[in-house]
Amino acid sequence: QSTLRKKLLDAFTEHEGEYLSGQYLADLIGCSRTAVWKHIEDLRHEGFELEAIRRKGYRIVKAPDLVTANEIRLGLKTSIIGQEIHYHETVDSTQKIAHRLGFENVPEGTVVVADEQVGGRGRMNRPWHSAKGTGVWMSIILRPSIPLPKAPQLTLLTAVAVVQAIGDCTELEPHIKWPNDILINGKKVTGILTELQAEADQIHSVIIGIGINVNQQKSDYPPELQSIATSLAIEKGEFVNRAELIQAVFTRLEKLYALYLEKGFLPIKLLWESYAISIGKKITARTLSGNLTGKALGITDDGVLMLEDDQGTIHQIYSADIEI
Ligand code: BT5
To answer: Does residue 96 have a known ligand-binding role?
Structure first.
């Protein structure tokens, strides 16, 4: 059933805007014309707008703002990221499901996406507000053969991909705050959480959780988030299609990941620095072992933050919350 559906949506993707006849689709996906018609009706029920013209066939006019596998697949041009999509309307956390799938050896690039999370989490188990139908809540499984200490580079790589994807879809220009926050006008629009499954020093899976605030209005946030969180719709002043944004993230991520595997972290680091806000500024890093204040010098070739304190000592920071 779902492979038929994938073939059908791939055909509409390949012939974007064209009419495809029932017979053509039936031949292509290997079923009867009645079965094609049934699939088309199912798409309609899911909110797709389809035009049907006698002797010409079917055409997708508009896809609904859902983040189901169908929705994401229509128009998707990647070859690794998002080839397998696990959609859930409501989940505790997409990270948890992705961790399970990671152990089950699903293909690299598999994505878990949800319309709502009731137990979304950030770093150190902090809550991540993930209201229904308003954002992109997803976890992507990668399996790079890199040494364990390099895994945090993937957080920075993902941040670059998300900044570029937001730019592609909205023309907004977000900035990155080391290591995992994406901000617009000083407010957080995206958080990234990278977790590992490893045995000894061998990475089995990297689970990259991405939360993007897309169509929330200010009043959708609880009071404690209203002054620190924003959304693409708040910043742009109009609604943004979530599935298109997800596709853009997949496309950007796939390109950067290939570049990273081929050329290493350096080209990613240069891009990251071009989007970073904290570099050169006085910051306070809150770490588990205490606070450090000083100038952010930049990141090392491994993606570690370098901070120079007032005495001129340079500290390497592996994990912290940063205040600018
Ligand atoms: C993060 O943590 O920023 C990583 C967030 C990752 C969320 C994704 S969604 C898909 C996947 N499934 C999950 O369960 N998680 C991942 P951190 O840097 O620790 O920031 C957490 C802090 O951000 C909270 O303590 C709040 O102050 C704030 N916050 C919570 N929800 C927010 C939201 N929707 N927008 C902006 N800020 C938020």
So the answer is: no
